[in-house]
Design brief:
CATH architecture: Up-down Bundle
Strand content: under 5%
Radius of gyration: 17 Å
CATH topology: Four Helix Bundle (Hemerythrin (Met), subunit A)
Low-confidence stretches: 147-153
Number of helices: 6
Shape: globular
Number of strands: 0
CATH superfamily: Nucleotidyltransferases  domain 2
């Protein structure tokens, strides 16, 4: 039997899949970090994790998932439901650069990704994942309270 993950309790199957995919990407980036010098790819994957977590949150709340990759824009939509998503504004801006810059040759744009960039991106994902887990726990605590009140009525 496999270990239960934090996203397994999510009842909405599409939201659960967003979180599962983001978590798998995060694990892959962490696991390969010490064995690679391809820090560009680690940075790109970290952007993807943030994007999947934000889209998972929107799906969890029944929102339409926009077909965008801009983390700040996704966070602004998420902040309509929970203002604390704006606490990571600087991180969204930094990781947004990784989405575009990592996909083009260095000779064209001059961006060289260093180990520290990848390390910082991984640390940001770890912090954001903790935040997401708290948000999900709060979501289900509120849902449980609503269900309990309905059963009493």
């Amino acid at each position: 039997m496999s270990k239960k993950e934090w996203f397994d309790k999510i009842e909405n199957p599409l939201a659960r899949e967003w979180f599962k995919m983001g978590n798998e990407d995060f694990r892959y980036a962490k696991d390969t970090f010490s064995d690679t010098e391809n820090y560009r790819m680690i940075c790109f994957i970290c952007h993807q994790v943030f994007e999947k977590y934000l889209k998972g949150y929107l799906q969890l709340n029944g929102c339409m998932i926009p077909r965008i990759h801009n983390l700040l824009e996704l966070a602004k939509i998420s902040a309509k439901l929970n203002k604390h998503f704006l606490n990571y504004e600087g991180t969204y801006i930094e990781l947004n650069d990784y989405y575009i810059d990592t996909r083009y040759p260095v000779m064209a744009y001059g961006e060289i990704f260093k180990k520290k960039d990848a390390f910082d991106a991984l640390r940001s994902v770890k912090e954001f994942e903790k935040f997401i887990i708290i948000i999900i726990n709060n979501f289900y605590a509120k849902e449980g309270n609503k269900r309990g009140k309905k059963q009493k009525d």
